[in-house]
Specification:
It is a single chain. By secondary structure, the protein is of the alpha/beta class. It is built from 11 helices and 9 strands. The strands form 2 sheets. It has a 6-stranded mixed β-sheet, with helices on both faces. A 3-stranded mixed β-sheet has the order 5-7-8. The N and C termini lie far apart (39 Å).
């Protein structure tokens, strides 16, 4: 595990990202606003490096985009002609980066505004919670450009909105606005324009206050259990539940609840 000092040194060298720390929450911001935060090879590599080297003190991440857009997808201006083998390697580099977001060390809350298109939607789908502002719009234009999703979209997006809706978006170029995306399942929270970061930070602080092992179980076990048959899934659930409740932090939280030192669930 890298030290806090070495992690901060690595993160400071990532010039295509703005990275700030607020106690247990790290804010990672895509920083190519002139390109609508379009993703090139360097940005993919920096995202991968960033999530590999989060400081030990980080318990949750907020992911956002600088400027008027979250991310407009693949930077087509830097698209090079590639052989089949090179194309596979390029796609796999995106997979590695986004895998580190989805199955990394801490939960990630994405703030969506403006374009969440193509690879930008693939990136957003790798986060655990998505907060969408009024200006958000979603698209998968690869079909109109002679391409196919290559950043994990075919695996992640249908799990959010279904195969039929993704097929429609890719075949027809259909664009969903913020409300349509919320109804379809692309975001869990809808907020007014300019309120996304505040909401995301609020959620991230709540997440960061959870027992780390509980967060780990939700991130790592829950999506895998969903892929199993019910008998297998229930067995893995039992294992994960036993591991989580045996953690010292969980035992202290249960004592706090039983002794009246922790609040009960309520609708606020």
């Amino acid at each position: 595990m890298p030290s806090e000092v070495s992690s901060n040194a690595v993160l400071a060298a990532l010039d295509l990202l703005k990275i700030e720390h607020d106690a247990a929450v790290t804010h990672v911001r895509l920083n190519r606003p002139a390109k609508r935060n379009a993703i090139n090879d360097a940005l993919v590599a920096q995202l991968h490096t960033c999530f590999l080297h989060l400081p030990d003190s980080t318990r949750a991440v907020v992911l956002s985009g600088e400027g008027e857009h979250f991310c407009a997808g693949l930077d087509l201006s830097e698209l090079a002609e590639r052989s089949v083998a090179e194309g596979i390697a390029h796609s796999r580099s995106w997979h590695a980066a986004f895998e580190q977001i989805q199955f990394g060390r801490v939960p990630v809350v994405a703030v969506l505004h403006g374009a969440v298109v193509g690879g930008g939607l693939e990136l957003a789908a790798s986060a655990h919670i998505r907060v969408a502002e009024d200006s958000t719009f979603y698209g998968l234009p690869e079909g109109q450009r002679g391409l196919f999703v290559g950043g994990g979209g075919s695996a992640r997006v249908p799990r959010l909105i279904g195969v039929a809706r993704m097929t429609d978006m890719m075949l027809t170029g259909r664009v969903l606005d913020a409300d349509e995306g919320q109804a379809a399942g692309l975001s869990q929270y809808r907020v007014a324009q300019g309120q996304g970061l505040a909401k995301a930070m609020e959620l991230a602080r709540k997440i960061a206050s959870n027992a780390p092992l509980s967060n780990f179980a939700v991130m790592q076990a829950l999506p895998r259990i969903a892929e199993l048959s019910q008998p297998q899934g229930l067995f893995v659930e039992s294992l994960m539940a036993a591991i989580a409740q045996g953690d010292a932090a969980a035992k202290e939280r249960m004592r706090a609840f039983l002794e009246g030192r922790a609040g009960k669930v309520s609708k606020s």
